[in-house]
Design a protein that fits this description.
Elements lengths: L1 E8 L3 H14 L7 E8 L4 E8 L2 H8 L2 H11 L7 E5 L1 E6 L8 E8 L3 H8 L4 H6 L3 E8 L4 E8 L2 H8 L5 H12 L6 E5 L3 E3 L5
Antiparallel strand pairs: 1-3, 1-4, 2-3, 2-10, 5-7, 6-8, 6-9, 7-8
Helix pairs in contact: 1-3
Length: about 200
């Protein structure tokens, strides 16, 4: 899998949403290898999108399309500054349900000090986590070349996610969380998407 993250400040969330809907209607059917996109705008106007493709080649072919170039030229005018792009083929997915059914999505962007150890911790048995946090539909962890990452959590709803955050985990899970937190090389940035835009080939 290949993931491209696009982020930046937008001037109008509704126009950005309409442009993404237009991409879905007009360009998605002609984008072979596209697996889905999770996007949205935070309350303070920060846009983030995570586009998933079968491979980097599939993503490149899509970006080279004249129709894609035209759409992006129009969409990029909604940014108040430059958009940032991050590409990764180092993906650790964990889906426990249908992410397209998520009512709330949280994307965490940051940098880790020990990527190998993070991968090991994320590969642990999810059963205890799912028992504690049944509102989690899935998670995708993308690692970039500079050890920066994007973790996307899919929740049934924001209310249930906030309730889950207040739960006290058992000792073994708390130790895992504490170790993951200790591997942050810098304070992470949180993107809370209260009204996520969820696109997939199944909805074309």
């Amino acid at each position: 899998m290949f993931v491209q993250v696009i982020q930046g400040q937008v001037t109008d969330a509704e126009q950005a949403h309409a442009a993404m809907d237009r991409w879905m209607e007009e360009l998605a059917p002609e984008a072979p290898g596209w697996l889905g996109t999770t996007a949205g705008v935070t309350a303070d106007g920060r846009f983030i999108a995570l586009a998933r493709f079968e491979s980097a080649d599939a993503a490149r072919r899509n970006s080279e399309s004249p129709a894609q170039d035209k759409w992006w030229h129009e969409f990029s005018s909604l940014f108040s500054g430059d958009a940032a792009f991050y590409d990764s083929e180092d993906i650790t997915p964990a889906m426990y349900g249908d992410p397209d059914m998520a009512g709330f999505v949280q994307v965490i962007r940051g940098r880790v000090s020990n990527p190998e150890r993070v991968r090991e911790l994320l590969a642990t048995d999810p059963t205890p986590w799912l028992a504690l946090r049944p509102e989690v539909i899935g998670r995708t962890f993308a690692l970039f070349d500079d050890d920066r990452f994007a973790t996307t959590f899919y929740f049934t709803s924001e209310a249930e996610a906030r309730e889950g955050e207040r739960k006290e985990p058992p000792a073994e899970l708390k130790a895992l969380v504490d170790e993951l937190d200790s591997l942050d090389a810098e304070p992470p940035e949180f993107f809370d998407l209260k009204q996520p835009w969820l696109y997939s080939p199944a909805s074309t």
